[in-house]
């Protein structure tokens, strides 16, 4: 961006040293600092380095995990530095903020000159200026300056350049430029950083993200949207080789008591209602309910299995040939007992110690509600009962894991992303180049001083410059 | 069972042959500005040498192009196999296929570069990287090489565009890395005043530098586009456009590293030597992002 012509034409010539630090100088210093490429490089590198932290240290784990892996001292430092949630620490956010300030200040400082050169170009330049360029040549042509100027104008225009000419007494200056959009692109990309970060902030302040474990047939209230969501169906499709192909939930939104929208969601295809997105995120075995259980009934006296029964969830069943009625009323995947509240609960979501509670009615005389354990068949015995029950198998009930999210900043993020891609593409494919030609009449014909500059793609420009030179020479009748 | 695997194999051997030919070409080629010993014009010898080198160079290009055609065929065959087995088309759906695609893109980039700038010496480095990518792919265990069905999250049209664009940017960075290496070799030879014809066949330092810069200028916006497409995909699949998953974060890190490079090029003193070293460093980071993250760090991209 700080290419030579501007520097040479004295735009940023540093003035004489002033004794006092006036407001003008101070603000210019500040702008220069925040607009500097060095700051941009520094921020890019520091952001890159700090971003690695979160990929090496697991983020958002429980304290025990860190203490176990890194020790207590290290964990204390992690907390102090925010290493357990790097990307939301004040210093990481500040770095992003600084990047925005950097790119905005750069825009403020440099875009006006791009804008000016889009509308009005500097045609008249000194001979020394042309000769100081990286690409420059001097040709002697055997034509009048008007003819040469006209040919140059045509030649440059053919190549898509915008051409301006200025006639001074004694000499003609032709100026040609192309690809200013490349520089505009860079500035668009700079602005996009701020747009994306603002969109991100908007999302993190006014959006939310929750995870819901839902069972088929149940209705759930979504307080954030003030409507209900019913899970009509959940199922899994498999590939031929048995691997999971897709998992799907049919959801119905019930707003003010009336079903208003139904959609089958699957991974990559969410349901959107009132700005809230419902994603099919995962599935698993429920820890508080199962579809069916298989029970062996053993006669205590003979220690023989006298019957096997399959129970469905919460449905009473009479056992054939035995004076028994049974019902499965509860299930826990990982049995635990809270002795103060006298309550059974599932310690984890894993099926580590599955147990069901039966409601048994024996001859309408003995009634019992025993817990029976999948892994420990002989743990408890029911008094007065002639039978022992063994929990030998079950069919788990699948839950559907729904990600529920709203992100009001997302449109802004996509706008910023579009700006970034368009800006970067323009800036890398199109490069700004400028040519100046000074035609000075000599003794026989004219002397042509041609110079050109670009801020990148030197070899392509060199090639183009050489071609121009060749063409100018070739067309000259000698 | 997998016809494409045979084609991938053939591609590998052809790239190896092409690499050998390019290196041979470098040794055979006489420097254009050969100093003739005083009083002994060397025209005849030079002409013979030159023709020999030119032929080698032509064969190298031919073999490269042929290898690339086979690579294309292999990817197409794989696309059809995927269609049969896993309900998607994209022949870049696992690590192996991704590597094969990257080498395809690198070689394509090289062939275009050769046709446009007529510089063959670059082939020894860039085709070398394409060959290494192909070789690394074939070293993967067999179970990584087959067209297994995709997990549900990957089964989406986003895979066509997000993965291919990101991988293309990797290929561009690989080219830049190869050119950076070439720059350092050439620079060393120049500094030592080496008369070796091997180095004399290289394009001049400025050209190598500029080509490397161009490759990065191509890869940089492509990577941004790839990351953004990934974010859009994540927004549909995972319920959030950015979740700081290791792969995501590493691709951002790589992007930031090249962002620093792009800005550094605007300031004086960051061309040439420093830029070459930086391009190699950047490429190492790309390799880590592509391979290291998959095998060393866990995350949502773990299946890739």
Keywords:
heterodimer, A: 478 residues, alpha+beta, TATA-Binding Protein, 11 helices, B: 304 residues, mainly alpha, 2 domains
Task: Describe this entry's structure for a reader.
The complex is a heterodimer of chains A (478) and B (304). Chain A has helices spanning 4-8, 23-35, 37-56, 63-70, 72-81, 90-119, 127-131, 145-158, 180-206, 410-429, 458-475; strands spanning 135-141, 162-168, 171-178, 208-215, 219-222, 227-238, 244-255, 258-266, 271-273, 276-299, 304-312, 317-318, 324-332, 335-338, 343-346, 355-362, 366-368, 371-373, 387-406, 433-441, 446-454. Chain A is of the alpha+beta class. Chain A has a 5-stranded antiparallel beta sheet. In chain A, strands 4, 9, 10, 11 and 19 form a 5-stranded antiparallel beta sheet that branches. In chain A, strands 12, 13, 16, 17 and 18 form a 5-stranded antiparallel beta sheet that branches. With 304 residues, chain B is mainly α. Chain B has helices at residues 3-28, 43-86, 95-117, 123-139, 142-145, 158-192, 197-200, 205-237, 246-264, 272-296. Chain B has 2 domains: 1-90 and 121-149; 151-304, no CATH class. In chain B, helix 1 runs antiparallel to helix 2 (43-86) and helix 8 (205-237) runs antiparallel to helix 9. Chains A and B meet through helix 3, strand 7, strand 10, strand 19 and helix 10 of A and helix 8 and helix 9 of B.
């Amino acid at each position: 961006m700080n290419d030579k012509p501007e520097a040479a034409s004295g735009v940023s010539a540093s003035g004489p040293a002033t004794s006092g630090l006036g407001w003008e100088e101070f603000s210019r210093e500040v702008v220069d600092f925040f607009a500097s490429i060095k700051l941009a490089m520094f921020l890019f590198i520091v952001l890159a380095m700090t971003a690695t932290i979160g990929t090496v240290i697991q983020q958002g784990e429980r304290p025990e995990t860190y203490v176990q892996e890194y020790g207590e001292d290290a964990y204390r430092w992690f907390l102090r530095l925010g290493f357990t949630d790097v990307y939301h620490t004040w210093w990481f956010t500040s770095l992003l903020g600084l990047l925005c300030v950097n790119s905005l200040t750069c825009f403020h400082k440099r875009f006006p000159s791009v804008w000016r050169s889009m509308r009005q170009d500097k045609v008249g330049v000194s001979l020394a200026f042309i000769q100081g360029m990286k690409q420059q040549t001097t040709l002697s042509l055997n034509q009048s300056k008007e003819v040469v100027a006209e040919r140059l104008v045509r030649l440059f225009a053919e190549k898509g350049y915008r051409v301006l000419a200025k006639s001074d007494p004694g000499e003609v200056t032709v100026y040609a430029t192309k690809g200013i959009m490349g520089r505009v692109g860079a500035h668009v990309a700079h602005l996009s950083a701020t747009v994306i970060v603002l969109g991100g902030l908007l999302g993190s302040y006014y959006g939310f993200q929750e995870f819901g474990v839902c069972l088929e047939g149940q209705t759930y209230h979504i307080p954030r949207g003030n409507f209900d969501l019913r899970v009509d169906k959940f199922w899994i499709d498999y590939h031929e080789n048995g691997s999971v192909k897709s998992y799907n939930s049919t959801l119905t939104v019930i707003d003010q008591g009336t079903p208003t929208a139904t959609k089958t969601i699957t991974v990559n295809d969410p349901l959107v209602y009132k700005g809230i997105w419902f994603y099919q995120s995962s599935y698993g075995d429920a820890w508080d309910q199962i579809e069916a259980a298989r029970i062996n009934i053993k006669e205590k006296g003979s220690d023989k299995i006298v019957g096997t029964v399959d129970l469905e969830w919460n449905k009473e069943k009479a056992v054939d040939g035995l004076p028994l009625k049974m019902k499965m009323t509860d299930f826990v995947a990982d049995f635990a007992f809270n002795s103060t509240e006298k309550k059974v609960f599932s310690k984890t979501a894993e099926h580590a110690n599955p147990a069901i509670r039966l409601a048994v009615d024996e001859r309408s005389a003995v009634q019992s509600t025993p817990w029976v354990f999948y892994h420990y068949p002989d743990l408890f015995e029911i008094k007065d009962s002639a039978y022992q029950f063994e929990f030998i198998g079950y069919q788990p009930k699948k839950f559907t894991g729904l990600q529920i999210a709203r992100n009001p900043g997302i449109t802004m993020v996509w706008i910023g992303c579009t700006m970034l891609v368009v800006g970067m593409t323009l800036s890398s494919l199109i490069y700004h180049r400028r040519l100046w030609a000074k035609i000075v009449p000599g003794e026989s014909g004219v002397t042509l001083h041609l110079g050109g500059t670009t801020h990148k793609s030197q070899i392509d420009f060199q090639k183009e410059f050489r071609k121009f030179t060749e063409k100018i020479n070739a067309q000259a009748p000698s | 069972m997998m016809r494409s695997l045979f084609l991938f194999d053939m591609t590998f051997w052809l790239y190896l042959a092409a690499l050998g030919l390019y290196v041979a070409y470098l040794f055979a080629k006489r420097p254009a500005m050969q100093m003739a010993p005083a009083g002994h014009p060397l025209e005849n010898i030079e002409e013979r040498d030159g023709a020999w080198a030119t032929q080698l160079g032509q064969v190298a290009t031919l073999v490269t192009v042929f290898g690339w055609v086979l690579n294309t065929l292999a990817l197409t065959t794989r696309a059809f196999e995927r269609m049969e087995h896993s309900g998607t088309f994209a022949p870049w759906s696992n690590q192996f296929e991704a590597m094969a695609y990257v080498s395809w893109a690198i070689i394509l980039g090289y062939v275009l570069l050769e046709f446009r700038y007529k510089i063959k010496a670059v082939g020894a480095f860039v085709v070398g990287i394409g060959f290494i990518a192909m070789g690394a792919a074939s070293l993967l265990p067999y179970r990584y090489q087959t067209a297994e069905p995709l997990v549900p999250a990957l089964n989406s049209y986003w895979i066509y565009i997000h993965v291919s664009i990101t991988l293309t940017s990797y290929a561009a960075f690989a080219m830049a890395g190869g050119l950076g290496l070439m720059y350092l070799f050439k620079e060393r030879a120049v500094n030592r005043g080496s008369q070796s014809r091997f180095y004399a066949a290289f394009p001049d330092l400025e050209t190598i530098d500029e080509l490397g810069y161009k490759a990065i200028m191509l890869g940089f916006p492509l990577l941004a586009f790839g990351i953004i497409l990934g974010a859009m995909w994540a927004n549909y699949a995972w319920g959030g456009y950015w979740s700081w998953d290791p792969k995501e974060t590493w691709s951002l890190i790589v992007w930031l590293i090249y962002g620093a490079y792009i800005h550094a090029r605007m300031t004086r003193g960051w061309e040439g030597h420093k830029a070459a070293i930086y391009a190699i460093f950047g490429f190492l980071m790309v390799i880590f992002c592509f391979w290291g993250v998959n095998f060393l760090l866990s995350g949502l991209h773990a299946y890739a």
